[in-house]
Amino acid sequence: MAQLVRRIGWGLMALLAIGIALAFAAPYLSLNSAVSRIPLNPAVTLHFPILVIHATTGGLALVIGPFQFLRRLFAKRPALHRTLGRIYLICILLGGLAALFSALVSTSGFVAQFGLGFLAIIWLYSAYRAYETIRKGHIQLHRIWMRRNYTLTFAAVIFRLWLLVGALLLRIPFHAVYDTATWFSWILPLLVTEWFINQQLLQALAVRGRHAVQLPAVEKSQLLAKEKSLEPVLSIKG
Ligand code: HEM
């Protein structure tokens, strides 16, 4: 049952990621500034070219992300996982720097500029931590940082879903929906991700802690089996 829920969740995530990348980011490949959905800053000539870099690299990262969480792909094709991982991180580096620039020159107002600018910084930071941990061989920490980082990448999806729901269904003024989206699209998903990470870690540590007390043999063997299933979480280094 849990596996079915996980598969449906993954499918939904991949579908939304690909859909948003095709609908919102791909048009920028035409290099025609008429496709821009946001007003361009007339005083900044580089605004549109930088937006093109941001949309294309962000779109590619959004599409690659879900496949990096497939354990089967990682186990069967580790070289492919590594190559896609490198492309993903390069996309975040370029997309994140371009996002920071776009936030600075944006004409969307202070609230949006600050929300997206802050997001760009933690997007870059979490990608750096994911890279640093895997270079040191800390696989479990790398997984945790990648989860955080992809949650932030996925903000691009939540952002646009909230715009649709808020402006079209709830008929909230567009400016207010846009401003709230620049903060809630990443803060709320990040809280959910942190909750999942904590749950897994706490459960693993609680199981380990119970070994310190004397237990009947049957209960102890059940705990050992449970601990074995949580091995990926317990084997965090550093
Ligand atoms: C998660 C970190 C991200 C940050 C910090 C960020 C930041 C920004 C900023 C500052 C703008 C300009 C907004 C404005 O001036 O009002 C923008 C626009 C845009 N971003 Fe991102 N972005 C992120 C992720 C993504 C991803 C993953 C995609 C992939 C679909 C993406 C696609 C776009 C597109 C297509 C635009 C132009 C507006 C539009 O046509 O919808 N962004 N982004």
From TrEMBL:
Database matches in Pfam families: DUF2306
Keywords associated with the record: Membrane, Transmembrane, Transmembrane helix
Spans traversing the lipid bilayer: 12-31, 43-67, 87-105, 111-131, 152-174
Keyword Transmembrane: yes
Name this polypeptide is given: DUF2306 domain-containing protein
Protein species of origin: Ktedonosporobacter rubrisoli
